[in-house]
Design the sequence.
């Protein structure tokens, strides 16, 4: 019966492994976060963003992640991208060739 | 009920098998590590890195592993890559051809 109550984990979020990339994909770091708020704090510290505002999107398609419940619904090892003012999500450069058949 | 407390393993890290590759993927070694710190020490000794600074990334996508808690969340047999100054993660060369049909 425990398995059915996974949604109650919103109240007691588990530590989840995340990967966070810079906007240019030059740096990607592994970060453990208990919540979106926790992740935002750790991203600020780890990627040395100082006090500049930023937000997180999914690296794969630029989906903006701004609610705690959406964050909690993401899979472990989801890759996020940090975007600061003036930065825009771009598709991965190698994607074109990798999936070219 | 013990199975639910797996996160408490952060306090008592178990020995975990890791695989560590050089940046050019020419050498890959199996190493048992109790912690990220332990792994870093063993990598230094095993791959004869002397006193040159280095860091570890995930071989699959270059994610930097720099915190103990992120290390603990990784699966057994995770493949790491050692990067020294001037070295950069590169995708595996066979990736292009592997998905080519």
Sequence:
């Amino acid at each position: 019966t425990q398995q059915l109550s996974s949604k109650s984990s919103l109240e007691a979020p588990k530590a989840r492994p995340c990967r966070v990339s810079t906007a240019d994909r030059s740096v990607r770091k592994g970060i453990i976060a208990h919540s979106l708020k926790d992740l935002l704090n750790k991203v600020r510290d780890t990627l040395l963003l100082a006090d500049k505002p930023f937000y997180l999107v999914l690296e794969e398609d630029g989906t903006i992640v701004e609610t705690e419940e959406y964050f909690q619904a993401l899979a472990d090892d989801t890759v996020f991208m940090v975007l600061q003012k003036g930065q825009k999500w771009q598709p991965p450069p190698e994607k074109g060739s990798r999936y070219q058949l």
User: Anything to note?
Assistant: DSSP finds three helices and five strands in chain A.
